[in-house]
Amino acid sequence: QVQLVESGGGLVQAGGSLRLSCAASGRTFSNYVMGWFRQAPGKEREFVAVISGTDDRTYYADSVKGRFTISRDNAKNTVCLQMNSLKPEDTAVYYCATAPLTYYDMRNYQSKNLYNYWGQGTQVTVSS
Fold it and tell me: What is the pLDDT of residue 29?
């Protein structure tokens, strides 16, 4: 079992920044790919960013590229999502999730079906 707990969400004005964290426990953290997804009301859960287990390869959704940065600290079992230049359309519940290392290319990790453990989510609201 893997437990994931997100934190850092909140209300921010457009153009502002937030930093989300996800604390993991239960297994060897560095063995797993870590992803961030988000779900806005009435919409499907969508991919945001992913990072590999030990060599920091990353991939981002086009909608956040250049504004968001994913990072991880395997010594602390945490993964973070730094979100800058936030827009109202970034408003959603943000989830972190783990996936087994199956593919080398991080572009293959956009499907939520690859992820087997999920956190409870943290709300991010961006006001205009």
Answer: 85
Closest CA to 35 of 4, 66, 67: 4
pLDDT value at 3 more than 90: yes
Non-local CB neighbours of 50 within 8 Å, separated by 6+ positions? 33, 34, 35, 36, 58, 59, 70, 99, 106, 109, 110
Within its chain, how far is the Cα of 15 from the centroid? Answer: 19
Say if residues 24 and 4 touch (Cβ distance below 8 Å).
Answer: yes
Q: Please tell me the distance from the alpha carbon of residue 54 to that of residue 44, in angstroms, as a whole number.
A: 30
N- to C-terminal Cα separation, the chain: 40
Please give the angle made by the CA atoms of 124, 122 and 119, to the nearest 5 degrees: 145
